[in-house]
Amino acid sequence: MTEILEILPLTKEAFAPYGDVLEADPSTMRLINGGTTERFHAVGQPVVIGEPVRLIFNIFRGQPRQFPYALDMMERHPFASQSFSPLSGRTFLLAVSDDEGGRPGKPKVFSATAQQGVNYLPNVWHHPLMAVGAVSDFLVVDRDNTAENYEEFFFENPYVISEPSL
Predict the structure, then answer these.
(1) Is residue 67 within 8 Å of 5, Cβ to Cβ?
(2) 153-164 pLDDT tens trace
(3) Is the pTM of this model over 0.85?
């Protein structure tokens, strides 16, 4: 039987077990550059496990998903965090799962605003980029040489995400 997943709003509290929500937090704001710039300090932190490796900036261009969408796989990066910040001014969806004995559990789906990004902690099961409505660019910070920092899992019975009302 196919299970339909609820789309939840992305909040720092709900996402905390999986990583950081990257957004302007007024409690961290500092004025810099002679008072002409607001700096929202330390809204997230890249994490690398093991030997020092190079973190790189990438631009990912995501094709919009078609809904209803069959969520049939999850991936994770055991040795480093991975962040996604929208550059195209569009909302997007993300799905994460708790680890259940080396495999992902039931996914949770979040809707991120155009002003929110995410930083997945190392070893967090997540679905690949889910652009909504139009081709969208994202700034991605992750570990160089992702081949050795990548695992994927395919569900026997896919979950379904209905058309988001964004």
Answers:
(1) no
(2) 999 999 999 999
(3) yes
